[in-house]
Amino acid sequence: MRSLKPMFTFLTVTLTLSLVSTPVLLAESKDERAIRLLIDRYKQAANSTDNAFVKRLLSEMSTAGGPFYTPFGNVSKSVTDFKNQIEHDLQTLASRRFSISTPFAIQIDGRMAWTSFNWRMDTIHKDGGQHSLTGRDTLVFAKQGKNWKLRHLHSSLPAHVPPSQGSIQVDAKAILDQEHALWAALRDQQMDTVETSLDENYSVLQDGQAYRIQGKNTYLSSAKDWLSQNELKSFQLLDPKLEVLEDTALLTYYYISSGVSNNGPFSNSGKATSVYVRKDGKWLALHHHSTLNKNDPIAQERKSN
Questions:
Q1: What averages of pLDDT result for each successive group of 10 residues across the chain (305 residues)?
Q2: Which residue, 129, 141, 204, 296, has most beta carbons within 10 Å?
Q3: Cβ-contact 139, 114 below 8 angstroms
């Protein structure tokens, strides 16, 4: 008599597969499948730097959609604003790779639906900068007629975005220009310009001062006293080196200056360190430390007094 074991095993496996697969098929409704297709197109758009291709893939967005919160702090109030923002961002990118890094479920309630997930994006910028970012998305969908549309996007990063090489260069130029402007303002005795360039907690360490000058107002008073007895005629800032770390920057350089004091003409040289901080989008000087070169005659004169 033929054994019934192979037949029993086949029926058991078939039944088990049916019990496992049937709820999955039932759970993924027509609406859910349509929304997953929208998410797939969203992923395709996030993987491309072709502006026309990206705009075409995002055509499923609701015309009444918005606002859209991007991970870089920008807010687009309408679909048009959002597409313009995308076009602007794509101009800086050479390539990008986007992936969803966590499982996600789609929640549907009538004609509204939403989902959330974590993501990772690796970008290469046209200026040569490369970044690997991780973030989080919440997507909200609305059903218009028979079709689902992307209605709202909220994308965010868990930390600050690393600056690109282009933005670092812009910051570096702004800080160097600011330091040069401070020297020029002292030369031209434009104390209003000096005042607006300093942080309230500005401090100074320099030769000829036994203690730290602390606070913007204290420094301004000290600078006015110095200018009442001295006149800065010329200056040069040499070999500047700058390091920008998010909202703080460290600047070092050598300097040569000349002018006239109560004791006659002077000419000296030295080295300087300046610390800058960014507040409300503007770089402000927070600290300055200068030292005259040891073989400088002015330095020797001060030591002997």
A1: 40 34 54 93 91 79 78 79 84 92 92 93 88 90 91 83 72 94 95 95 89 94 93 95 91 96 90 95 95 66 43
A2: 141
A3: yes
Domain regions of the chain by residue span: 22-156, 165-304
Give buried/exposed letters for 6-34 (b at 16+ CB in 10 A, else e): eeeeeeeeeeeeeeeeeeeeeeeeeebeb
Residue pair 288/261 in contact by the 8 Å Cβ criterion = no
Give me 161's structure tokens.
């975005």
CATH class of the structural domain 22-156:
alpha beta
CA-to-CA distance for 168 and 187, rounded, in angstroms? 29
| Residue count (the chain) | 305
Q: Is the dihedral of CA 224, 229, 235, 239 positive or negative?
A: negative
Sign of the torsion angle spanned by Cα atoms 45, 51, 52, 55: positive
pTM of the model: 0.51
Correct CATH for 165-304 of 3.40.50.2300, 3.10.450.50, 3.40.1160.10, 1.10.10.10: 3.10.450.50
User: Based on the number of CB atoms within 10 Å of its own CB, is 125 exposed (0-12), middle (13-18) or buried (19 or more)?
Assistant: middle
The answer to whether 186 and 192 are in contact (CB under 8 A) is: no
The helix/strand/coil state of 107 is strand
